[in-house]
Structure formats: C-alpha cells, structure tokens
Amino acid sequence: MAKVLPSINCHIGDTGAVTARIRAIEAIFKKAGRPGWEQMAHFDVADGIFTFHKSWDEPEKLAEIRPKFHYEVHVMAENPRPSVERWLAAGAKRVIVHLEAAPLELFAEIAVLAEDAGAEAVLALNPETPITDAVPYFNSTSNFLILAVHPGLSGQKFLPLVLEKVSFLRRELQNAKIEIDGGINPKTARAAVQAGADTLISGSDIFESPDPEAEYEVLISI
C-alpha cells in the first residue's frame, strides 16, 4: 500500500487559496481516521524560471496558518538553496530539489542542511532526464521523486515513459524511497506502484473530485 500525499500548488501571493487547501487536507486526514501528524502533504514551489509559472513560496506564513500535518516541499527553482533554507526554517520534513538545478556538490550541501534541521533531502528528476544521471547521487541519498509531468502547473497528463525510471531505481536501490508526482489518478497510481513507487503525490485528482475524501481513500487503498 503506497502513501498518498495531497499536494498544494497555488498561485504566487494567494495565501487564501493555500489556507483553504490546507484546511481541506486536514479534513481529508480527519475523515480517514489518521491523525495529521502521522500524515504528510506536499507543497509545490515554482520560481517561474525553472518552470512555466510562479507559485506560492511564503513558508513564513505557515506559522500563522498552523497546518495540522507534516509537509515536504518540492522546490522547482533554478537556484533552490535559498528557498530550501526558508522551508527548513519553517519546519519542512523533506526538501525536494532537482538534479537539473542541483549539481552533486550542491545537493550534498542541501542534504547536510536538511539533516541538521531533522529533515530529509530528496532528489527529483524531470521526465526527460535520463535516470542514469541519478547514479552519482546514490551515495548522497536514497530518496527520489520522479516527476511524471513537466515541472510547473498542476493538472497535466501522466507521462508513462517515467515508469521505467521508477523500476530502475527499485532494482538498483531496493531500500529507496520513491515518490512519483504528476497526473496521478487511480489508473496511473496502480501503474506507478507496480513499477516500484511507494509514495504518490496527488492534487487535481483529489481536489477536483466531487468527493475529495473518498478519492483519497481510493488512492491509499492501491
């Protein structure tokens, strides 16, 4: 059974939308009978340079919003370190940075920052990046996020070509933690889990469903 992390991908400056999504996630966790602190949600942060658009990146405001769950942050940025530092200071438990923006030396530095903050560092790969590019990072992390869409906006279609990347990681690092993000719905979730993913990130499928709580339950049952 895979873990399912509801995602928060809101426009830059729209703290109201972020707050509403956080409250919706709290309601999902409560209805599922799983205490929030045993669960995790996923923030998408896009800088408008590495990505098509900019998204909300104000972790300092979470002290006021007070989400009742742990969270990780997917930093889609040309220069990820400043954002990583701010999110770690705000309490992020996992920070995800892209191979395409974080050479091995920088990723190693970010991994140390995360460890010092009691968090984990995760290496993300864009759909077009060969999975073999991740091999030099194996000594620095066993945590990976495979992006099944192009970085940026939510609601994109799942790219099946990334499933082989998941399978490669599972074969090469049996203890790897493998997240898959983008276009996740019950059908693609099953394919991802069969390939070896243990964590699913879902936004549109859950929150555009007539019954988000029920859709979350469907996903966590896969």
Automatic annotation (TrEMBL):
Q: Does the keyword Membrane apply?
A: no
Endpoints of the signal sequence: none
List the InterPro entries. Answer: Aldolase_TIM (IPR013785), Ribul_P_3_epim-like (IPR000056), RibuloseP-bd_barrel (IPR011060)
What keywords are assigned to this protein?
Answer: Isomerase, Metal-binding
Q: Which GO terms describe its molecular function?
A: metal ion binding; racemase and epimerase activity, acting on carbohydrates and derivatives
Its protein name is: Ribulose-phosphate 3-epimerase
Q: What processes does the entry annotate via GO biological process terms? A: carbohydrate metabolic process
Q: Which Pfam families match?
A: Ribul_P_3_epim
Q: Which domain of life is it from?
A: Bacteria
